[in-house]
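Summary for the steering committee. One of the milestones for this cycle was to obtain a three-dimensional model of the protein with acetoacetyl-coenzyme A bound, which we needed before selecting residues for the alanine scan. The sequence and ligand used are listed below.
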Amino acid sequence: MTDVILVEQVERVVKITLNRPDALNALNLEVMEAVASALEQYDRDPNVGCFVITGSEKAFAAGADIKEMQDKTATDMLNADWFAGWDRLSRIRTPILAAVNGYALGGGCELAMMCDVIYAGDRAKFGQPEIKLGVIPGMGGSQRLTKAVGKYKAMDMILTGRMMDATEAERCNLAARVFDAASLVDEVMNIAKEIAGFGKLSVMAGKEAVNRALEGGLTEGVLFERRSFHGLFSSHDQKEGMSAFSEKRDAKFKGE
Ligand code: CAA
């Protein structure tokens, strides 16, 4: 049997490639377990500073696996707490970049949105087509898409099930940047290497602080950010980063 994901470490970056080409990388329970376990395994590794999740040129992922779910009853879904395993991604502290080529539909779009940044290939297609299957998004799409693009665009996407292309995704802040499809993964790996080259403490603090903006009120979020900023002044990397600036040299971060 082939592996449902491929995991490769390049310098300080771990790349996870979804690998179910015959099913356009549909996300079944095995993929969920494999992705979450790989992220957890490397998250605390001081030699890993960034993750990249990608798929193929045809599909990042065409959704949750419809064939795995189609005969389930509501009781089955409730008992299994279907999709709850994906919540493990929200506890990963190392940044996760999504490199999206091709289809990112349903759970595929939702997986991309669980990542910290979405970079799109110029032929990417995003959508939440669950309405066409008689359901709604179930991996957080109604919440994360609405926070990303606002109520009206999210309603348009979720109630019509239409796809949006990469240009529209960038325009409405779903994709941070768009690259040529053929060079997307290399471009994102380079961004990941850049992020992984900074001090891991400050990178994790930056991720945590931005996420606070989405989850709490402004006053509480600003205070959280400031306290976290203060705490970094006990790290080697803060002393090194600021000294290197003053001494006009490159910083040597240690993640301490
Ligand atoms: N689940 C299971 N299998 C899937 C799949 C999915 N989400 N998407 C594609 N596949 C399978 C197809 O059944 C097909 O398998 P067979 O060769 O065995 O028939 C294979 O992948 C190739 O797919 P197509 O032949 O359909 O490829 P295409 O190029 O003609 O169409 C597509 C591509 C438009 C993406 C089409 O595959 C499609 O519409 N897929 C389903 C998209 C979808 O509805 N996603 C939402 C799923 S529900 C969900 O995600 C819930 C949630 O919120 C988490």
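Key point for the committee: The chain has two domains: 5-196, 199-247.
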